[in-house]
Design goal:
By secondary structure, the chain is of the alpha/beta class. It contains ten helices and ten strands. The termini are far apart.
Length: about 260
């Protein structure tokens, strides 16, 4: 069982200062976020929140580190493969039948890029037009830079069919592969904060928000789901993580299409 951890005195004031400095609302995250803040304070030998805030205020690199520490990036190509094959064999063909091959798609919380590139590979296989690209957003600058380079360790390709590795990747050494330009050109990565960035309205036919909201409070989850739904076109599909459920889907004007898929009415 995880040991109970409580923030030191001054945490509320620290949260207010962080919001003013960086436009980050720490209350939007689950309560365990203060444990991460404390770990960073220990790293920089700060005895209180005021000392750590002074470091954040003066050093842009420390602010970047702080933002990166809020995000958890665990990813691989075609993570939970059966979900992706369902997307390829059923979900995308049905969207093509309804809307044609020109589909707008978005990987929200794209981390180091494996999810967005996996979607781009499916788009290439199904001859989809994604005008002018698949959107991919993440708050983590370091993760986004990895995505832009498109170079991955072979273990991250464990779920990629061997013929697709030959087709869509270039081997650059014994352990690393690079995504081919034909796939990289299909994706535009942006450093964006989902919490305070306005979403496009009625734009997307498919949104992947897999394991994006699980680190947020219940109230923030609801707000984000509301924003995602408004970003979908009527009839558009939202995919969540394999273990996630939107329990109040009716109030969001969604209908479930199985365990991890929801359609905007």
């Amino acid at each position: 069982m995880e040991t109970q951890f409580s923030p030191m005195p001054g945490y509320d004031e620290f949260k207010d200062k962080v919001k003013s400095l960086m436009n980050i609302e720490l209350d939007a995250y689950k309560q365990q976020i203060h444990r991460r803040v404390h770990m960073l304070m220990q790293r920089w030998k700060c005895s209180n929140y005021e000392e750590y805030f002074e470091i954040l205020k003066k050093d842009p690199e420390k602010r970047k580190e702080f933002l990166d520490y809020l995000a958890i990036n665990v990813s691989e190509f075609f993570r939970n493969p059966s979900i992706w094959w369902h997307l390829r064999d059923k979900v995308l063909p049905e969207l093509i039948k309804e809307k044609g091959r020109r589909l707008n798609m978005w990987s929200a919380g794209s981390a180091t890029g494996e999810e967005a590139y996996s979607l781009a590979i499916l788009a290439e296989e199904l001859k989809l037009l994604c005008p002018p690209y698949i959107d991919a957003w993440d708050i983590d600058e370091e993760a986004t830079n990895i995505a832009l380079k498109g170079i991955y360790h072979q273990r991250q390709l464990a779920n990629v069919p061997p013929n697709w590795i030959d087709k869509y990747f270039v081997k650059i050494d014994e352990e690393h592969f690079k995504v081919k330009d034909t796939i990289r050109r299909r994706v535009q990565f942006k450093i964006m904060n989902l919490l305070n960035t306005p979403f496009p309205q009625n734009k997307y036919d498919l949104i992947l928000c897999r394991n994006v909201v699980i680190y947020f409070s219940a109230e923030t989850k609801k707000t984000l789901y509301q924003k995602f739904v408004k970003a979908l076109r009527p009839g558009g599909i939202m995919m969540v993580g394999a273990t996630e459920h939107i329990y109040d889907y009716r109030s969001l004007d969604l209908e479930p299409l199985g365990q991890f898929l929801y359609r905007r009415k």
